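testing teh design pipeline on a random one, pls ignore if ur not involved
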């Protein structure tokens, strides 16, 4: 009788452990992305980003990237806007990551970029080893008071001193009618990268507004 009970206990424990492993594995799909990311960024936009040269690092073991970083010179790699000029340098991009929770693969972010700033409404992180990708639905506002909702994706390789090979994608979800004419059109997107290959940790979080220099969400 004891032997039968023992066998049942072993079977139950094995089932429990398998269930736990299944729960962990279900955090990301075969692409290494969470369900929240898939809901935020449709395949059509994700495929367009990647076709424009945006690297995506999936996985459920991202590094802890909590800190503030400066991406500069911030140079256009690709765009779906005919009027954009590849190689154009945009305003320095300041980004702050905080509240990272790897048990939920979630994170918070704020950004500053010339006359433009924003806060993540829903922010998610994936990756493996030191490589990561952050997907953010952003509420943004320009100095003229106009607002927009965008998707930002930031990818790179974390180090203690900063982020190597930072790439950034920005796609407009809703410019709310673009009454001031500041924002790009709905569906417009860009891939921009830190052209010197390194975005250092920074104590400063104050964007410099330079005449004639575009921001990531601006026409």
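output:
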């Amino acid at each position: 009788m004891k032997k039968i009970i023992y066998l049942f206990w072993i079977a139950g424990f094995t089932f429990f452990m398998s269930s736990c492993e299944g729960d962990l594995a279900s955090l990301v799909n075969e692409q290494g992305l969470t369900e929240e990311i898939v809901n935020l960024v449709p395949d059509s936009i994700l495929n367009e980003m990647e076709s424009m040269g945006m690297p995506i690092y999936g996985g459920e073991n991202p590094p802890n990237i909590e800190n503030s970083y400066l991406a500069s010179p911030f140079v256009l790699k690709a765009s779906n806007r005919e009027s954009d000029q590849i190689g154009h340098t945009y305003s320095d991009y300041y980004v702050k990551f905080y509240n990272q929770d790897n048990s939920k693969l979630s994170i918070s972010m704020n950004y500053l970029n010339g006359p433009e700033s924003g806060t993540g409404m829903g922010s998610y992180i994936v990756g493996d080893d030191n490589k990561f990708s952050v997907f953010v639905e952003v509420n943004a506002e320009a100095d003229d008071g106009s607002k927009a909702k965008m998707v930002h994706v930031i990818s790179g390789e974390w180090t203690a001193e900063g982020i190597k090979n930072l790439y950034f994608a920005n796609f407009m979800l809703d410019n709310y009618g673009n009454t001031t004419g500041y924002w790009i059109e709905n569906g417009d997107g860009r891939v921009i990268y830190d052209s010197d290959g390194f975005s250092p940790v920074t104590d400063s979080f104050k964007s410099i507004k330079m005449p004639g220099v575009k921001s990531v969400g601006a026409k």
